[in-house]
Amino acid sequence: MRLQLLHLDDALKTQPDFISASLKKNAYEIDMDAADIRLWGNKNDIKAFAEKLKKNLRPNGKPVVTFMGSGDFHHVTSLLLECVVPEQSKAAVIHFDNHPDWVHCKNGVHCGSWVNRANALPQIEKIVTIGVCSDDLKFPEFKGANLQAMCAGKLEIYPYFHEATRVFRQYGKGPGYSQRGGKIEWRNIEAQNADEFITEILESISSSEVYVTIDKDVLAHDDAITNWDQGRMRMPFLMKSLRKIMEKKNILGLDVTGDYSVPRYTGPWLTRLKKHIEIKLDQPRLAYDSATVAKRNAASNMALLELFTECLA
């Protein structure tokens, strides 16, 4: 595998033991301060960042494994896909997250909208999102959710646990949901066997090639501490699922985001103000000291690193 630490913020730099372990495995460190696209970026900023990213990434035919800091940058996944998944191929994206990241976003890309940008790439077969528990599934039509992608089979969502979702239009039935009247009933995975569930998901993906993206806010607080509200999945479930995916599919790339970092923005004052207001409304206040944050996130990163090394080296 080609291992890289993409420093978009200082999240990974607070974990020196993890960085040291990564460097011993021949990791590349790439410093790309991305404060101007934290949370979201307009089309010009995203285009400029994508060009710089392509110059720094050097895929060598091996799976590209990227650790990249806060989940505020999850939209960088859609840029990595363009670099890692060849245009002439067909690949599915398996997406572990507490949020569906499916909202419509005009004139740019948001960390909560990147799924739509990724699904628009011709080489992407579909995106399978696993682990959502967040309130994004409550009244999604009023929050700009792309439910049409789910209807079209380009997006599958499997909540770890979520109650039925109230909707006002008809969305039919899909692999991860069914609709009864005005409610979408989800196929929750909390009580399911990880191996059996992931095997079924993999059998439904026609492509032999996949890209995996992990936002650590899918995990409970005992396993990770992030900038966002977190789900209920535990590390053993995630690790078993990842192992099965890597055993059964050809991994083109894999990224890990969701480590906590103190928000910092650059750009016009109005943009910075809007972002500041957004995090005040959407992100919970950190309830842990910095040493606990670094220790807990480094532990989960170390576990993931060892698993990737075992399965992809």
Report on this structure.
By secondary structure, the chain is of the alpha/beta class. The chain has a single domain (2-312), classed as 3-Layer(aba) Sandwich (Arginase, Chain A), CATH 3.40.800.10. Helices cover 33% and strands 20% of the residues. It has nine helices and 14 strands. The strands form three sheets. An eight-stranded parallel sheet has the order 2-1-4-14-13-5-7-8, sandwiched between helices. Strands 9-12-11-10 form a four-stranded antiparallel sheet, with no helix packed on it. It has a two-stranded antiparallel sheet with strand order 3-6. A hairpin with a 2-residue loop joins strand 10 and strand 11 (177-180). It is globular, with a radius of gyration of 18 Å. The N and C termini lie close together (5 Å). The relative contact order is 0.17. The model has no long low-confidence stretch (mean pLDDT 95).
Number of DSSP strands? 14
Strand content: 15-25%
Major pleated sheet: 8 strands, parallel
Return Rg in Å: 18 Å
General form: globular
In the CATH hierarchy, the architecture is 3-Layer(aba) Sandwich
Architecture blueprint of SSEs:
Elements: E1 2-7, H1 16-24, E2 28-31, E3 40-42, H2 43-56, E4 64-67, H3 76-84, E5 91-96, E6 108-110, H4 114-119, E7 124-130, H5 147-151, E8 155-158, E9 165-166, E10 173-174, E11 177-180, E12 183-186, H6 194-203, E13 209-215, H7 235-248, E14 250-257, H8 269-282, H9 290-312
Parallel strand pairs: 1-2, 1-4, 4-14, 5-7, 5-13, 7-8, 13-14
Antiparallel strand pairs: 3-6, 9-12, 10-11, 11-12
